[in-house]
Here is the input.
Amino acid sequence: MNPQFLKKYSKTVNNVKEKDINNPFIAAKREWIEFYGDIVNLNKKLIIGITISIFITLIAVIGLVYTNNQSRFIPYIIEIDKLGAPIYAGMPTKTSIADPKIIKYTLAEFINNIRSVYADPIVQERFLTKAYNYLEPNSQAHTEITALLRNDNPIKRTQTDRVLVNILNVSPISDNTWQVDWHERVTDIKGQLKKNTYYRGILTITISSPIEDKDIFNNPAGIWISNFNYSTLSR
Here is the structure.
């Protein structure tokens, strides 16, 4: 190739570059392209930063909600000494709501509450309300007890009778069915004996943890009586 042509071509290219550099319009265009490129890069960084911030905030919110849902209460037992002073008795031990001792106590209390007759009608109503706390709603036991108390109203009997209930035996027949034997001593309001009667009740229970606040306070063990039948024993 002709060396003179190459020299002339190189000189022409250099002249074009010098003209582009010195051209204010081209220089402005170049500055605008560089400025726009910086803005694009900055937006990318901002989007990445915002995305990371949202992700971290979301994790923090989930952690906060989880932490707030965890119970922070640490229960402990307080006993009262002979002088009435409170004494720390340690932490409660975990027990099953199906503990036979709890079931026995619940069923014995239930029989006492529905069969005893006291002098004060307000006290009588209070114990009947406690008995209903153990009845499974819309169950056979609920219907049976309602009919029993309607036919032999203990609140009305407070005007004429006193009934002392003595629980003799509470024992399981199967996993969900229990037998309760008890004795009733009936007197008039002056304490004169009217009759002694022995009874046997067959109670079927279901166990489920209470959910509503009123059930947590009234029936914390979640022992519900679903069926109840009783009969008189001859002694």
